[in-house]
Write a structure and sequence with these properties.
alpha/beta; Aspartate Aminotransferase, domain 1; Aspartate Aminotransferase, domain 2; 2 domains; seven-stranded mixed beta sheet; 41% helix; globular
């Protein structure tokens, strides 16, 4: 449990977390306390303006933009992204979101009857549905290994998860940072063991780029999906799919178009297959380098440190308020800018509780259920301050008091 000051949680130290100077760059409604960045992200004004400039360029000369310049523009945008995530340019393609990238992988899996895809029970609900769908279509067994909570150490996690591997395990699907429970999983060691065992790895890194340092060379998965419109703050609809060179030929295009048999093949069949999808606006992808540059200009490494401190403070205070233990010990290896705290069962319907926070208290925050138990997920980005967390704590005390009375 966190230690309360004598003043209680009504008086959080103003210096904890970002100082509020970054709020000026974001387009969020100032009347809403926005603590749900992990849902869809938020884009700074300079990056949004870059996105709009690219859209205007497309409208000025669509044929030049899409027929003559498309490939070169995307190659340059992929080059900047590749430097940022630690890989080579042609190991990446831009996709609209994490779900799209993982659909490409799931529908191409070299797995069938007698094979197993091993995952955890902490995966994103949409991705869980995707792989259950693929299991029904392809005939493989989809096994969700339960991860005990509270978790203990990364070493314990690896041993527990790996004990679920069987001779039938052909593919491992695992979140790098979990959506429902906000836990940073030790996927590097899982990838290392899997490669030694001849098992393919599919890593859902939706929440990692921009929130944690990422080197795909060091991680060495077979497939990795990251979202850029979340913590990198790129425009909405901006994500990437990485495929290790040795695994790229396993992936079929989700949309078959000119890239399947191009008139002028590029240096990478992987890029040709998945980049050519017919007429589409690619402005959000071309603005991604500007989002990376925006964070570099504003010393985002320091911003992340401040955000993590405030997030952990929020988790401590909510845990002390509710008396319900968190999913993990307070070790830096587990947490980032997003934290979860379990709520008392007495709150009743989680959706109703979330709606009350939004419309009675003007707070946007994630409230959901994990393993039949309600939880609140608090996201802290550079525009958040200690006052935002203070507002949430006041609202929670009021609502929980009402539920108990």
């Amino acid at each position: 449990m966190g230690q309360r000051s004598k003043a209680g949680t009504d008086a959080l130290p103003a210096q904890l977390g970002p100082d509020g100077s970054l709020k000026q760059y974001f387009l969020l409604d100032p009347d809403i306390t926005y603590l749900n960045h992990a849902a869809y992200g938020a884009t700074p004004r300079p990056v949004f303006e870059s996105f709009q400039r690219w859209q205007l360029e497309l409208e000025r000369q669509p044929v030049d933009f899409l027929s003559r310049n498309f490939t070169g523009l995307l190659a340059q945008a992929r080059s900047v992204l590749a430097d940022y995530v630690g890989t080579e340019r042609d190991n990446l393609v831009y996709v609209a979101n994490g779900t799209t990238g993982l659909n490409i992988v799931a529908r191409s899996l070299p797995a069938g009857p007698g094979d197993e895809v091993l995952t955890s029970d902490h995966e994103h609900g949409g991705i869980d549905r995707l792989f259950r769908f693929a299991s029904a279509k392809l005939g493989f067994t989809y096994t969700r290994r339960e991860i005990p909570i509270p978790v203990t150490t990364h070493a314990d996690f690896v041993e527990h998860f790996w004990a679920g591997v069987t001779p039938k395990t052909k593919i491992i699907l695992l979140s790098h940072f979990t959506s429902p429970t906000s836990l940073l999983f030790p996927v590097r060691e899982i990838c290392r063991r899997a490669r030694a065992a001849g098992i393919l790895t599919v890593i859902d890194g939706s929440h990692v780029p921009g929130q944690f340092p990422l080197s795909l060379r060091e991680l060495d998965p077979d497939f990795y999906v990251g979202i850029l419109h979340k913590w990198v703050c790129a425009p909405k609809g901006c994500a990437f799919l990485y495929a290790r060179p040795s695994a790229q030929n396993l992936l079929d295009p989700l949309i078959v178009s000119w890239g399947w048999s191009p008139k002028n093949p590029g240096p990478s069949k992987f890029v040709d297959f998945h980049e050519w999808q017919g007429s589409r606006d690619i402005s959000e992808y071309l603005a991604a380098p500007d989002a990376i540059a925006f964070q570099a200009r504003h010393n985002w490494d320091a911003v992340r440190v401040q955000c993590r401190a405030l997030a952990l403070h929020a988790q401590r205070e909510i845990t002390e308020l509710t008396g319900v233990p968190p999913y993990h010990p307070e070790l830096p290896e587990w947490s980032g800018q997003v934290v979860c705290a379990q709520l008392p069962l007495q709150i009743g319907d989680a959706d109703n509780f979330k709606t009350r926070l939004r419309f009675e208290h003007n707070i946007e925050v994630s409230v959901d259920v994990f393993r039949t138990w309600p939880r609140i997920r608090v996201s802290i980005q550079g525009y958040n301050t200690a006052a935002d967390v203070e507002h949430l704590l006041r609202a929670l005390r009021q609502l929980l008091r009402a539920e108990r009375s």
